[in-house]
UniProtKB/TrEMBL annotation:
One of its GO terms (molecular function) is catalytic activity, acting on DNA. Residues 105-265 form the HhH-GPD domain. GO terms for biological process: base-excision repair. It comes from Seminavis robusta. This is DNA glycosylase At3g47830. Residues 1-57 are annotated as: Disordered. It holds the Pfam family HhH-GPD. SUPFAM superfamilies: DNA-glycosylase. It comes from the Eukaryota.
Length: 339
């Protein structure tokens, strides 16, 4: 039988015959750097440096033109939206109420699921007056949208909105919002639970065709990690406040839709390098955004743009005047030429 090991007693540092002091490690204020701590430090350092935050108008133009060549169907869809033709995707509905509910159903789920949920909702409860007539809690509404996920939460939000409208305006219509400014609409819709900046911005852009730039997970990730348009520690709300203020009104729709489409298909820009809808042939898209930092100097020199973004309306025609390959061209030294 083996003798169990015994831990040796802790040795004491003898100071004198009457006092014994055990040595303690010296206190240290150093803490290992973490991702959040580094991001907060970078954010504080760049807080007052507006030059480090993009994008410029020319950079927006470059991204729209470059991604437009990769995803021409997205530009076609945007042109259809601008011509007031109704689509089937998130928010593109005949009324603001329909668009708002459709956008709520799209929260934290896929387009396919939210579309199915909206169709099932309209089948079970054809009018919003039918929703108001339901008892609280609205289990029939919850069951109708269950296929879209988070049915209990979303049904309560939808029910609360229309109950409030009936109590305040004796109507379920939201068409009165068309007479208000963007800021007034944000204040009006922002009082309802579950309607954050992204949801309201999507309603403004897709349903009301206002100049807005919603920031979802794809837009936030690409703007932060690839394009470097926002600070590393910026939240989605902070990114929205910044980008919505600096992205030209004339290309907000195209830029938003293209970044989402690209984020779903490009291995370089997708979360964890796993796109939702990669090319069916197994190839990887050649991402034009990764070289944007190298082309910023060239973009500043370009004077060939014909659109005055400062005067662009909410519904301008998309005019592509400069090919991305022209912007990407470098001088002989960059190409490795010898002098």
């Amino acid at each position: 039988m083996t003798t169990p090991l015994r831990r040796s007693p802790r040795k004491a540092a003898v100071i004198d015959n009457n006092l014994k002091v055990y040595p303690d490690p010296a206190p240290s204020s150093w803490e290992p750097p973490t991702k959040k701590r580094r991001a907060a430090k970078e954010k504080n350092e760049s807080n007052n440096d507006s030059s480090s935050r993009g994008p410029t108008h020319d950079e927006c133009r470059f991204v729209v033109e470059s991604l437009g060549q990769l995803h021409p169907n997205v530009l076609d869809d945007c042109q259809n939206r601008r011509s007031d033709s109704l689509g089937s995707s998130c928010g593109m509905k005949a009324s603001i109420a329909d668009g708002l509910v459709s956008t709520i159903l799209s929260q934290n789920t896929t387009n396919a699921n939210s579309t199915r949920a909206f169709q099932q909702l309209k089948k079970v409860l054809p009018t919003w007056e039918d929703v108001v007539a339901l008892p609280d809690p609205p289990t029939k509404l919850e069951d109708a949208i269950r296929c879209g996920g988070l049915a209990k939460i979303k049904s309560k939000r939808i029910y609360t909105i229309f109950q409030t409208l009936i109590n305040e305006r004796q109507s379920t219509s939201l068409e009165y919002l068309r007479e208000l400014s963007n800021d007034q609409i944000k204040k009006e819709l922002g009082r309802f639970p579950g309607l954050g900046p992204k949801t309201i911005s999507c309603v403004l852009l897709f349903t009301m065709m206002r100049a807005e730039f919603p920031v979802d997970t794809h837009v936030h990730r690409i703007a932060k990690d690839i394009l470097k348009w926002i600070r590393p520690g910026d939240s989605r709300e902070e990114a929205y406040e910044h980008l919505n203020a600096v992205v030209p009104d004339g290309c907000k729709l195209e830029l938003h839709c293209l970044l989402i489409a690209h984020g779903r298909q490009c291995h370089r820009c997708a979360a964890r390098g796993k796109p939702q809808f990669p090319p069916k042939d197994g190839t990887k898209l050649e991402c034009p955004l990764v070289d944007l930092n190298k082309t910023r100097a060239n973009l500043k020199k370009q004077q060939q743009y014909t659109v005055d973004y400062s005067k662009a309306s909410a519904k301008p025609e998309l005019v592509v005047s400069v090919k991305p390959e022209k912007i990407l061209s470098t001088n002989e030294e960059d190409k490795g030429g010898t002098s």
